[in-house]
Design goal:
The protein is α/β, with parallel strands linked by helices and 361 residues long. The protein folds into two domains: 10-147 and 278-307, Response regulator (Rossmann fold); 149-276 and 310-360, Response regulator (Rossmann fold, 3-Layer(aba) Sandwich). It is built from eleven helices and 13 strands. The strands form two sheets. It has a seven-stranded mixed sheet with strand order 12-10-9-8-6-7-13, with helices on both faces. Helix 4 (112-121) links the parallel strand 3 and strand 4 (126-130). Helix 1 packs parallel to helix 9, helix 2 crosses helix 9 (279-289) and helix 3 (86-99) packs across helix 4.
């Protein structure tokens, strides 16, 4: 059974980091501690503006709060697998351990198979696995964290339609589980808002595609530009660094973007909000608990709306019509399960519930 860990609301994430350091910092012995973030492939960059960056921020925040150096190569470091294979991922983790890492943070479902091997190959190393669970029993030196992307995407789609947008777009980096759930949630949120507003069938349209990139890509910018030219008003870019290409196209077209994973409002004035996961705080929490009786090794944790593990950064959002009270109301319904968002990875399971919005080419 997946267990949840209570987090503070998304709007208070930054404050939470200070609170966590105040209440837990005294128990953490960081002498000799080294922390590494390992990326699953050469294409998975640190400064992706979303998933890796969010996880890295949690490491940096922890290091800052506990008197560790935040300079790369000292107490914290970033490693990339030499190729997109499990063998290369294990090699990258071994390189991190040889560098001196006692704690490894691994973002992404690509680590499902290799993490199961790593926890046994390196029993003296702590592993924090994000967005996945190992392909087998979880050992006590590993904790697996997943996020309810379908709920975060739902909030983004709901807010966009309540804001007044009627021609939406979704660009996913690839049809991997987390991205698929973001997209399917986005469609359901738009449908729910259209229904609550009493809109006519087909009043809301969505262009939907997986662009095959998680890094800045001219082709993504071109595709986004063509969507904007065809009338798309806002694109939800769940594509890591490729989201920067969508933002560039939006700047040229005078259109809007919804960011992903972390609060991306500072990356472009076109970003009206972001479908967030509590990456930094969840990583911080796990690092804080290492070496204490609070360590949740052997467990799979789910961060959803009920524990404030997902949400929109309303303080930094650029909505003109969608209000804080509207957000609070819909978020409460997700948190108390009054709204059940379908998290299926099969679009065939989602389509029957889309009676008002239309997916267009």
């Amino acid at each position: 059974m997946k267990k949840a860990l209570k987090l503070l609301p998304i709007a208070l994430l930054l404050a939470a980091l200070f609170a966590l350091s105040a209440c837990g910092g005294g128990r953490v012995d960081t002498e000799g501690m080294r922390i590494a973030l390992v990326a699953h492939s050469p294409e998975s960059i640190l400064d992706d503006g979303s998933f890796n960056a969010g996880a890295w921020q949690g490491i940096v925040d922890f290091a800052n709060a506990h008197g560790m150096s935040t300079a790369r190569g000292t107490d914290i470091e970033f490693f990339q697998a030499g190729s997109a294979t499990d063998e290369a991922r294990i090699d990258a983790v071994e390189s991190a351990i040889n560098w001196g890492a006692s704690i490894i943070v691994m973002p992404g479902f690509h680590f499902i198979a290799s993490s199961y091997q790593m926890q046994h190959l390196f029993p003296d190393t702590y592993f924090i696995l994000l967005d996945a669970t190992p392909g087998g029993a979880i050992a006590n030196n590993l904790v697996a964290i997943q996020y309810a992307e379908h709920q975060s995407g739902f909030l983004a789609g709901y807010a966009a339609v309540r804001e007044g947008y009627r021609q939406l777009g979704f660009m996913g980096g690839a049809a991997v589980p987390a991205v698929v759930r973001f997209g399917h949630g986005f469609l359901q949120g738009a449908e729910y808002a259209a229904n609550s507003l009493g809109l006519a069938q087909g009043a809301v349209t969505v262009r939907f595609d997986y662009v095959g990139a998680f890094a800045p890509d001219p082709g993504v910018a071109t595709q986004a530009g063509s969507w904007f030219a065809a009338g798309t008003e806002v694109i939800f870019a769940a594509a890591g660094g490729a989201g920067f290409s969508v933002m560039s196209a939006a700047e040229t077209a005078g259109r809007s973007v919804i960011g992903v994973d972390v609060d991306q409002h500072a990356d472009s004035d076109t970003v009206i909000s972001s479908a967030m996961k509590a990456l930094a705080v969840s990583v911080y929490d796990m690092l804080r608990d290492i070496g204490t009786d609070e360590w949740r090794g052997g467990q799979a944790l789910m961060f959803d709306a009920s524990v404030d593990g997902v949400g929109l950064p309303m303080d930094n959002s650029r909505w003109q019509n969608f209000t804080q009270s509207q957000y609070n109301a819909i978020f409460r319904r997700l948190a108390n399960e009054s709204i059940d968002v379908n998290n299926s990875l099969d679009m065939g399971d989602i389509l029957p519930g889309l009676n008002l919005i239309s997916i267009v080419d």
